[in-house]
Amino acid sequence: MVAITRNSKVVVLTGAGISAESGIRTFRASDGLWENHAIEDVATPQAWERNPQVVWEFYQGRRRQLREVEPNTAHLALVELEQYLGENFLLITQNVDNLHGRAGSKNLIHMHGELALLRCETCLSVFEMMDDVHLESDYVACQECDNPRLRPHIVWFHEMPFQMPEIYAAVEDCDVFITIGTSGHVYPAAGLIDVAKSCGAHCVGINLDAPVNLQQHDEFHQGKAGELLPNFVTNIIKK
Ligand code: OAD
Q: Which candidate in 112, 153, 202, 217 is catalytic?
């Protein structure tokens, strides 16, 4: 098993699997549907253009769910790792829930956006809007301009993930790259391990099933993140 010191630069990439034990469904369940919707019907700019009401209601449901879920032991273990490493730690998540932040992670990039935020496509303002009135409404108007319909601040398919320059800089520079709870299907996130590996990082995976990019990992721990990660963090810090 990999060993780290306080000087090790560690980048962690998480996906839906880390929030599964908090009660949030992963994307690629066996029926191919995400909360009973085909992904392309709710997670593309085309869907928002064609049928904004369906997309809006879908995301309102996901946003309301955030009030019913709590961070789990895997989210908390990553906070412990960050407390040990300080500035040498970066957490990149593909998840749009707010569980890493609520657990206490600080150096955190939400590369696929955040359910808690809404964005104006006219003036590009971003607002955190999680009050009851926002979670229950049919559309929310922009507070900065006259756009009556903010969109979810989510990276949909065919859109570019956020903060890619910072992500690539950190991944190219890290000593250890850890993937947790991600199937390795969606790019560019799934390709970050290739960048880490080609720059000499030791690559570790923790996942319930083998990810499609399993062969890129130097070390793989199969199981539930909530069960494996607390001990994993304790062990790599202790060594
Ligand atoms: P997936 O649903 O594709 O994969 C989740 C992975 O987590 C699977 O490999 C599961 O085996 C694993 N898993 C499930 N429960 C777990 C547990 N308790 N502990 C550890 N692993 C577990 O989700 P992502 O890889 O995150 O993009 O999907 C990537 C992107 O595809 C998402 O961010 C989203 C989606 O379309 C956008 O919304 C842009």
A: 112
